[in-house]
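User: Can you fold this complex?
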Amino acid sequence: MPSIYSFFRYIPFVVEGTLWTISLVLGGLVIGFFIGLSLALVQSFGGERLKKMLNIYIWFFRGTPLLVLLSLFYWAVFPSLGLELSPLETSIAVLGMRSGAYQSQIFKDSINSVDYGQILAARSIGMSNRKLISYIVLPQALRISIPAWSNEYAVILKDSAICFALGVMEILTRVRYVSTATGLALLPYLFAGVLFFILTFAGTGVMDFVYRRAKIPGMLEGLR
Amino acid sequence: MKVVIKAENVWKKYGSTIALRGASLELREGETKVIIGPSGAGKSTFLKCLNLLIRPDEGRICIDGEEITSLKADIIRLRQKIGFVFQEFNLFHHLTAVGNITIGLTKVKGMSKEDALEKAKRVLKMVHIGEDLWNKYPAQLSGGQKQRVAIARALAMDPLVMLYDEPTSALDPGLSSEVLLVIKDLSERGITSLVVTHEMGFAYEVADTIAIMNNGRIIEEGSPEEMEYMKTKEARNILNRWNGMKNGVLA
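Assistant: Here's the predicted assembly.
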């Protein structure tokens, strides 16, 4: 009969996995942010042909299971490009590319929610497209996108657990190891659940704080 | 007086709808011209064509002698010669009243932040926006205040001409008159203005010239005094319909 006390000495080992999970999430979110924002800008301001090409990227990453993407890029795509990436690097890259496809939809919607009148006004005072995007559209669109972006954080955090498939030493990989070593199931997996809950709660809490700080005075107050 | 805006035979089509059918207009330095006409006459489209916020399908538009409709035109530079005030204010929501003005001065004109701030304060005073409102965001301002900030934003860029696209149609009568008084004040200071409005009282009181637009073109124009002697029946009909509205707007 496995002793639950045997689990306790593995707690630091599992908690250390949190750092790997955070690396996956932050790496994926940051890469996804730049990809997503670029895609959204092209979708909102770019030419039709480019939009269609980028739609293929978006549909590919949104329509393919993460496990398939991880395997595809780790075993086939990156090696064929001559890139020797570690499981952690591959996982961050794939999470980022996939998140970029989802984030592009978040940013596209928030860019489109900046009313066209403001774009006309910016043009009327002589702003170029680059300037009006930088100084008028993005400062508003990024604020608007924070709640949806917070949701993307929660999604990518939970998706990061799938990276155990490549052997990335994140929370789930370590918990599976501990479960095998101790013969326990409930406690390690429950502990993993608690860690994910704390990370979700803390991350979305930070995003909520940023959203409140970044909110434009007078706007949307009536809706809260 | 030199011609600031010259539009010749401007056409614009939206699908099968023809919005402009050869509209032409000339605006001279220091002149205040008011365009009146029924809804759907093409007034807003015409005004937006003048600074190429809408590109006309045909026709020629010159700003200060330079053709803005030419494919080689430096539109961004030419637009800075035209101040544009929109019906729906179109203030930048994320910026304060002062920020709405300084953004153009710093990012377009390359002015220093300090100089831009000084200028913003000066133009806000010109449109009667008090110091207590300078750091308010658009959502914290009334409609009339928003429109006056929008006028200040356009004015701060030192345009050769101000275009007003139905600047009071989103405002109730009380707020309309505070905006119209500002436009009247600027016009009396000699700022060249082209105003699209339904406010007939304002047109008769402030305009040097009233242009009547219908069916996508300017059908006739003249001084307020000449309005009673319009040559075409079409213009007389429009004026007869509208003259009942000319009293009391700026009272």
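The radius of gyration of chain B is 18 Å. Chain B has one domain: 30-41+70-245.
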